[in-house]
Amino acid sequence: MNVILVVQLVLVGLLAGEEFIVRWGVQPAMNALPDDAHLRTRIALVKCLKVVVPMLMLPAVLATAAAFVVAGTGDGFGWRVGGAVALGVFVLASFLGTVPINIGVNDWDPLDPPADWKQVVVRWERIDVLRSSAAIVAFVLSAIAVVQIGR
């Protein structure tokens, strides 16, 4: 198996894992917090993840493109295409959906949040279900593509 395919699988897997735990672990826990703690946690999380996610996203996208070059149209090609499309959905949902919201959240004052902050959080969470699901699907399809090679 080619090193690039392994690197791609690891990067997409890390991205999917990070998205899974934020969506289905961290977010429900934050929603159980009192409003002031929720706001402080959300702001801190945005400040941290605005660094971590791009550090995974860009290399995952580049490695996915490199996997097409290395593996070509051989075994697993359709799965690689599906994985790449799912990764594209993740990237688009991020840049068109959650990133603009996060830019605003980054500047929130936890002692004086916007009046509509709860509605903003609900909108972010709806978009994040799509994002996190797309990242997980990208990983699963990429893994299937790797398994298909040489079968």
Please describe what this structure looks like.
By secondary structure, the chain is mainly α. The protein has 4 helices and no strands. It has helices at 3-31, 35-71, 77-106, 117-148. The model has no long low-confidence stretch (mean pLDDT 95).
Tell me briefly what this model is.
With 151 residues, this protein is an all-alpha fold.
Give the beta-strand count: 0
**3D shape:** elongated
Radius of gyration using CA atoms only:
17 Å
Q: Which residue ranges are poorly predicted, with pLDDT under 50 across at least 5 consecutive positions?
A: none
Order of helix and strand elements from N to C terminus: HHHH
Distance between the termini: 12 Å
Number of contiguous helices: 4
Instruction: Give the biggest sheet.
Output: none
What proportion strand? under 5%
Structural class: mainly alpha
Overall mean pLDDT stands at 95
Helix amount: over 70%
Main attributes?
85% helix, mainly alpha, 151 residues, 0% strand, elongated
Indicate the topology:
Layout: H1 3-31, H2 35-71, H3 77-106, H4 117-148
Helix pairs in contact: 1-2, 1-4, 2-3, 3-4
